[in-house]
Here is the input.
Amino acid sequence: MDFNYTPEEVRFRKDLREWLEDALPEGWGKTAFEPEDEYDRAMFRLEWERKLHSGGWSGINWPREYGGRGATLIERAIFAEEMARVRAPEGLNIIGHNLAGPTILRHGTEEQKKRFLPTIISSDEVWCQGFSEPNAGSDLASVRMRAVRKGDKFIVNGQKIWTSYAQYSQWCFALVRTDPDAPKHKGLSFLLIDMSSPGISIRPLRQISGECEFNETFFDDVEVPAENIVGDINDGWRIAMTTLAYERGPEDALGRQVRFKQELDKLIASTITIQADKGRAIDDPVTRQKLARSVVEVELMRLNAVRTFSKYLSGEDRGPDASVIKLYWSHAAQRMYESALDILGPLAPVSGDDPLAVAGGRFQLSYLQSRAFTIYSGSSEIQRNIIGERMLGLPR
Amino acid sequence: MNFGFNEEQKSLGETVAQLLGDYPSLLAPDPAEGRDLSVWNALAELGLFSLLVPEDHGGVGLSLVDIALAVETLGAGLAPSIIASTLIATDIIVRFGTEQQRAELLPRIDAGEIRISTAVLEAGQGYHPDMVQTLTGGNGITGTKILVPDADIADYFLILARVDGRPGLVLAQREARGVSMRPHDDIDPSCGLHELRFDGAALSEGAFLGHKTAQDAVSRFYDVAATVHAGLQIGISAHMLDVSVDYAGTRVQFGKPIGSFQAVKHRCADMAVAVEAGRSAAYYAFWAVAEDVPDRSRASSMAKAYCGEVARNACSEAIQIHGGMGFTWELGLHRFLRRANVLEHAFGNHVWHYERVMSETLASHVGAGEADRDAA
Here is the structure.
């Protein structure tokens, strides 16, 4: 065990830090912020991702031959830390980077890797995820969207739901039913679908927070070239499990930890000015206990991720440890935002553009958004089943 | 950077676990029977006490990281308290002892000849070392300590006391005149907890540890102790998870193993997540104290606060999952709950350590914690 960094890792951090100094918008975090409008913000994030790519800071631990930087998982962790330090903007092509890329890298053909990976890394193509359906939520294997092979194409019909970023996406990876007569896990396939194909329509869904990040996506006789299948026909469940392992895994958790750490720092800073009945909020013992718990839990999100990286580096396979990571961060983050509103006191309900809103109303927005954490990427109940059955070996 | 243990470190943990397995009385339902001190000799023979002793004093010269998994095992096995307290004291003597103290004590620690208990808390005080009232002066020490583990079989006490008006560390021998004790009536009789009185008890010339750097010595003492206690706590937690999963997989109700019911399965899953997060906290603290990095105090308080809560919950969950059996004397789950409570209140409970995390975080300003970490 050694938390010291090798000379290469130190160098990586230094290079990144120097690059970031020039790359971030002037006055970033002080006078310059993300646009308020949802669409503008999405485009701002996309521009930032492309800038990262132009500097060579995208696809950090992906192979060089597909446009990646070829760095280690530890350097990827350093990357996340440095993004946190400068409170860097988030990206838009998160699903491309975290899910589509790793899945194609693991199961794709050489042609698929060459075709798709470089444009994910450059964020020239944004991706969305077509897994959930109205009747296939936690019971994901019961998806009904049909894909029928006709010549050198699949004809796809059906509906997906909760497709985040579909409105910005050029590509969608989808779990589709190719054999309705087989047992439900054995009749699925994993397709890569061009979102500009005729027959695709998107209807935004307004979320608890008022935003429209996710959508319903309808597929009506959509033609998908047969070569866009990942893995074999009817072997889609195995491929989807890889996607889910990444969706819940340490890379994803580290990226989120960056944001939680930023918001926690902001919350702590806010408590210095917020007044409570007996002086500053920061001097209130109950507030301090709540903040300290979140300080610990946000730090443990990072340590859990790094510890899991170390397991992977020593040759262990990705498994139910991803569910441990996801179950941990999702509940810890919800506790943090609940504490945030507790700590704001009488101003807790004041949000958004109100001049009295603390920190621009970010805590209220994040609090609302945080309700999704324990539902998406597999609800907490599903994660607990996975941990109970696959990690602890309890009976089904 | 690597957050894993090597083969030697893992193997040490397994060896200690096997050895403790040869002393089933440690887990006896009656806590008084659980005080089997013969395990000391076996661990000494194994060389446990020589691990932290530097090579120039005849030891192996390992670090706290090297013994982290062994400490976890000591927790899971309800090993006598004097083992952990001797390891904690060894670290302090190695780091803060004078050449003479090191030459005198370390070879004997190495050989497993001396047992050292820690005397910290006092009645009518909280947990903070600054509040200590026990006084040294005129070659003697006066004051009353409470909850001193295995005091009756200790050879030395590592005592928190006022030295020149400030909190400092003192070593006194149990055999010294002016030392008296009475056993507590307490929740875990297997810890051998005593009230310890010093009535101008004689201190030898070499009694003061880290005399010129008392504040550093006290701070490290708390950090190492908090970390070791976190390790013991996570050991208990992991064991509670294991026995709960075993039981839930075999106990049949409604025609099925109860572990197939989500109400039970999900409790086990939540315990597993808490144990893994607690391990992340504890192992990071072991590294931080071993390397003496600037993040040391925050890391050790994070571990003690978090693992204390995890341990207490894990014991309660285990009892719940075992149903009526869990509540019986003879199944012995209460032993772990009792021990977890003693550990929780030694060297600061979780509330105290969360407060310490907060003051450390604010002191280093927001975000400066990582600068220290990166510099480390």
Confidence is low (pLDDT under 50) at residues 366-376 of chain B. Chain B touches chain A through 53 residues (CB under 8 Å).
